[in-house]
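Ticket #4471: structure export looks truncated?
Reporter: QA, pipeline team
Priority: medium

Steps to reproduce: submit the single chain below to the structure queue and open the exported record.
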Amino acid sequence: QVQLVESGGGLVQAGGSVRLSCAASGLPFSYYHMGWFRQAPGKEREFVCATKWSGGSTYYVDSVKGRFTVSRDNANNKVYLQMNIVKPEDTGVYYCAATRAQYELGSPRSYELWGQGIQVTVSS
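Actual output as written to the record:
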């Protein structure tokens, strides 16, 4: 069964840190580029960051640059999102996603597989 399962979310104070994990199973993980997206209530799902298959190339939305770091462990089929200096506007449901597309990694439409999402709430 192909699945992506996020973990590590919860409630965090503004200025604090939280680390999300996404465990992949049932797919050749190292062949996939991985992305993180988030969705706040009443808003569209937005791109947060992505890492290409090797982890050598990473991409971030401007609002998280310098605060968030995406990384992956291909040996253990996991991708991580380290969130530092979090802000209330980082609140939302965070999703990991997988794709073999080579372009438009910032678009949700490029992704084939999605996790169920995990809530991150940043209190002010």
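Status: closed, not a bug. The export was complete when the record was re-opened. Leaving a note from the reviewer for reference: The mean pLDDT is 96.
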